[in-house]
């Protein structure tokens, strides 16, 4: 059984603040992490872009400068706790672009029918 964690997605001026277990996320080294303590630097606002060519509620998540995005580490088994890396996203040059499965994330609202 795959565990689907609850995330908090907050709309901000320049993107979205994603929180895992109430902790805002950001990049440390090449990993996306949740910051459990307040820090002056660290938490980021992300660009979340729908990818309907990959299915309903499917998105990519990128840094504000679009230099990198969320990528599930390939050795993971798809369960909660798999490391998420911040790496340049790989996509085809086609329209619409095609992304790797490790770069795609599904968002489903839990406060309404989906």
Task: Give a short overview.
Pfam families: Inhibitor_I66. This protein is mainly beta and 114 residues long.
Radius of gyration: 14 Å
- Oligomer status: single chain
Rough outline = globular
CATH architecture, please? Trefoil
Pfam family, one: Inhibitor_I66
Structure write-up:
InterPro entries: Inhibitor_I66. It holds the Pfam family Inhibitor_I66. It is a single chain. With 114 residues, this protein is an all-beta fold. The protein has a single domain, classed as Trefoil (Acidic Fibroblast Growth Factor, subunit A) (Trefoil), CATH 2.80.10. Helix content is 0%, strand content 38%. The strands form two sheets. Strands 1, 2, 3, 4, 5, 6 and 9 form a seven-stranded antiparallel sheet that branches. A hairpin with a 2-residue loop joins β3 and β4. It is globular. It starts with 6 loop residues before the first strand and ends in an 8-residue tail after the last strand. The mean pLDDT is 87.
Which features does this protein show?
114 residues; mainly beta; Trefoil (Acidic Fibroblast Growth Factor, subunit A); 7-stranded antiparallel β-sheet; two-stranded antiparallel ribbon; 9 strands; 38% strand; globular; Inhibitor_I66
């Amino acid at each position: 059984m795959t565990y689907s964690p609850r995330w908090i997605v907050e709309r901000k001026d320049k993107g979205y603040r994603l929180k895992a277990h109430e902790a805002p996320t950001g990049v440390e080294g090449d990993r996306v992490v949740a910051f459990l303590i307040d820090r002056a630097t660290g938490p980021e606002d992300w660009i979340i872009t729908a990818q309907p060519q990959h299915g309903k509620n499917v998105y990519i998540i990128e840094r504000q400068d679009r230099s990198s995005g969320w990528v599930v580490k390939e050795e993971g088994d798809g369960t909660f706790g798999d490391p998420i890396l911040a790496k340049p996203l790989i996509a085809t040059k086609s329209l619409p672009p095609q992304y790797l499965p490790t770069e795609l994330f599904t968002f489903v609202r839990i406060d309404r029918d989906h």
